Every structure is written in C-alpha cells, then in structure tokens.
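During the no-cost extension, the postdoctoral fellow (Dr. R.K.) reprocessed legacy sequence entries with the updated structure-token encoder. One reprocessed record is reproduced below for audit purposes.
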Amino acid sequence: MNFFNDLIQKAINNEPPKSNVIGFGASPRKGGNSDILLKHILKGVVENKTTADGLQLRDFQYQGCIGCERCRKDKICTGLKDGMSLIYPGILESQGLVLVSPTHNYNVTAWMKAFIDRLYCFYNFDNNRPRGWSSRLAGQNRKAVLGTIYEQENKEDMGFTLDAMRLPLQALGYDIIGELAVPGIFDRAKIKENNEILNKATKLGSDLAESLLR
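Re-encoded structure tokens follow.
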C-alpha cells in the first residue's frame, strides 16, 4: 500500500524528471531483432554519458486500460495495480524515452498498445464537451526516439506502427527526436548481420542523449 501511496504522491507533485533515458521493447520474442535494436539505441545513449535503463514489456504482467477514470482524481492509474505500476516511476523520472516494437499486423504489438493506453493516466481533462485536455508530462523537455522492424520490403507493410507510437507521445508532450524503421528482416537476431542498421540505431541513441543536454 505504501508503494501506491508514494506513487500517487509523486504523480501529484509532478516533480521535474532527470536527464536519463528509459527504453521499452515490445516484442514477445526474447533475444530477437527488436531486443537487439533497443540494445543498440541505448548503447548510443550510454556512450554519451547518459544513464539508460532498458525494459522488456513481456517481462511485466499488465493489461490494457479499463476506462475506470480513477486516474482523473488520483493522477496515476489506481484502477489497476499490476506491472504498469512498477513501470510508471521510471517514466515519471526520465526525460528520455525509447520505444521499439516489431510490426504485428500493420501495427504495434499488443504489449505496446496496452502500454500506450495505460499512459492515459497522465492527462488532465476539463468538464467541457468535448473535453479540453492537457498532459502533466508536457513542458519538461521530454524527448523520445522510436524504432520498428518488419519482414516485408515495402514501407506500406509497416502500416501504422510508427504512427501508433509517435502520435500518443507527441500528445503527452514528448519531442520525437528520430525514428528508425527496419524493413526486410524477420529471422531471429538477423539484424546482427546488418552493421549499417546497428550503427544507425546507436546514432539514434546518441542523438537522444545529446538532445537532453540542450
């Protein structure tokens, strides 16, 4: 109970975040291409002397938003107490964010979709119709980078994957520093053979770290 009370208080206080980075991978395949992509992005962050933590959403048990609206009063999700409760502190404390999701059926994975929906708790709403809204994460120099991998060669086959991550983060107040879409890769860990892509991923992390210092 103390953990949730502390979390609620932190959300209410809305203390300024630190210039470190937290990254989330949304692939169900351990040791696969998305894991490697996230690892190299965070490598670029660390090489720029910025603290970075990487988490895999598959390692947490949580569900999608149930629309209970308790977060409007509590300023954090209290209708569900699950793996997202463990994730929220890192998001609140970190200016930098990395999201990596493989493309599943033209979109992000179910893990990433549920994660993004659970960020709804960071919005404030007024009582007008339609309701005006603002984000409690805005105005804090928050930056993000995004990555996705998909099997087919055509950009159209990536579908909405990057949009599904970019648009919610922008609404929450994140400045998207860069994106990396990697086509034509499916076999497990095949991305290791593509040094050009890995270097781009590392550069993306470096750009994120540098942007937090401006």
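The first strand starts at residue 18 and ends at 25. The two ends are 38 Å apart (CA to CA). The remaining legacy entries will be reprocessed before the final report is submitted.
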